[in-house]
Amino acid sequence: MTATEDRTRAAERKPPQIVDMSWDPITRIIGNLGIYTKIDFANQEVVECHSTSSLFRGYSVFMKGKDPRDAGFITSRICGICGDNHTTCSNYAQQMAYGVKTPPLAEHIVNLGEAAEYMFDHTIFQDNLVFVDFCEAMVKATNPSVLARAERTPAPRGDIHGYRTIADIMRAFNPFEGEVYREALKVSRITREMFCLMEGRHVHPSTMYPAGVGTMPQPSTFTDYLSRLTRVIDFVKEAVALNDDVFDFFYEALPGYEEVGRRRILLGCWGAWQDPAVVDYRYENMNRWGKAMYVTPGIIVDGELVTNDLVDINLGLRVLLGSSYYEDWERQEPFVTHDPLGNPVDMRHPWNQTTVPVPQKRDFDGKYSWVMSPRWYHQPSDSHLALDTGGGPLARLWSTALSGLVDTPYIKATGHSVRISLPKSEKLPETTLEWHIPRWSNTIERDRARPYFVAYAAAMAYQFLEEAMQMMRAGETKVFQDFEVPDEAIGVGFHEAVRGVLSHHLVIKDRKIANYHPYPPTPWNASPRDSHGTPGPYEDAVQGQPVFEENGPDDFKGVDIMRTVRSFDPCLPCGVHMYLGKGKTLTTMHSPTYGASHG
Amino acid sequence: MGTIKVGRRQAKPTTPTHVRGLHQGNWGPRRRQPGHHEDGTADARRSTGIHWKRHNRVMDSMPSISPG
């Protein structure tokens, strides 16, 4: 059994009154996601759920034959909000393939850029998109009794954030008018500026290359970043207090709310921020430098750490089909039979995958999505685990806490919690926040982890800044390492996109890309039922969840379901569509432009 | 592409990824851009061509930091 157990309460069941409810496309997320459910209004619960995406991208198809050095720039376009995560991950994979190590200062410049990205993206998603589901206007429309109670409930951490009651906080969440909503927009601008100082441009970085960066390290690069970071620290400290107050209140006001979006604890984290003193990008040493990352990679099953070895994580990856519009590649020639350590690589591993799309009609009993079903093979139980990312922060904090390896001046992983120390800021004193491993992997905990991770990223940024400035003062300003592209090589990059695990798998033959497969977080989270019938995490989390909304089938908003789906921070990357009048072809180009005459 | 009906392809996947003589970017900008040193560091010549020697470090024992 690789999915969550049936939560149906046997006692006191009324005859079901099942209504089909679907949301396609879901708004306030990125891309094109449809959620199709059957809701039993008599027993107030979701009976069945299917998640589907009608979007085909085909990066793995058209990357073939291209220059591997272009991969970071091309794959950045996968996403319109976390493109730099793809560039970073692609560069990690390329550095492994080229056998090159980035200079330490360049590594910290990438780390600083990524820290700013986490702060920016989590803030804008949480405060401007997720909180709309928890704002006064929404709660009034869906659970008026909860709002009435919120008016009477004082906010326990009012001394930090300045709001008297929970309802005051909810009013501050109201879109376009609320104070928190507007402040978050300002903060996301500042954090984006921080990002641009390091990586040149947001979100498709212009100064990130394999083996280094083009950012010129000079004193003002780092002081400009520092001054902006210090400006947002007040907001970060307040955000954590606000979130804790609101989410604690939901548990209290709606007993049983922990069941909303709860699924078996199956979390995956691939680690973020390399330690320049340890990392050498060699596959043989991947276990060592993976554990030195400032967010520890790990796979957590039922609250226990299964592994934090990136080699194990890599070899356990399996891409299953089952309900996806693709043809199987079992009969194709494998690209990689053994990894550099001599371990056998499975045919269903992304290194060996061939994407063969077969568009067809959507059929919920057969094939219904363009998303494949990535799974992690767990040998002891001989099962393919449908891991989720907990929206990113939940898995990152959980894995870091359990491994207990991160011990830096600002962050300490204790084995059961993560302690984050933030320095004094304009309004608030020096603060130590502590994120404890929660009892459940559910909607509220996924959302709660997000502001804590913003604090985590801010705290790490202080450390990266201090170390980078020290290197610069010592004159170690080298930021690029020369390299050669080998004739044949393989590489893998492990990173954390903002919303969770990200891996790029690269095979080079004849100095060209022979196979390239990016595995971002959403294929894990939004995957449909696989060939073993195991539902993907969205389906699993929504299926069987209770419904607390007070509206009946006629004016049902599905807020509890939307909260669950959004808690995963869905990001089904959007394609760019261009319209050129009546189909007039302006120009036809083929990359590489200069190579065209060589045919 | 499986069983999808597609037109005649415009791309030529057999063309080389790189044409000889074109700048590849695998090596640092030292040869083309003044002020960048062999060891990856840079000096004031990177930022300005005017009296740049006067903006450099005053002693060899000091680190060479790019002005800015």
TrEMBL record, chain A:
Mg(2+) binds at H577. Fe cation binds at C82, C574. Residues 519-538 are annotated as: Disordered. Keywords: Iron, Magnesium, Metal-binding, Nickel. It holds the Pfam family NiFeSe_Hases. Ni(2+) binds at C79, C82, C571. This is Hydrogenase.
From TrEMBL, chain B:
Residues 1-11 have a biased composition (Basic residues). Residues 35-46 have a biased composition (Basic and acidic residues). Residues 1-68 are annotated as: Disordered. This is Uncharacterized protein.
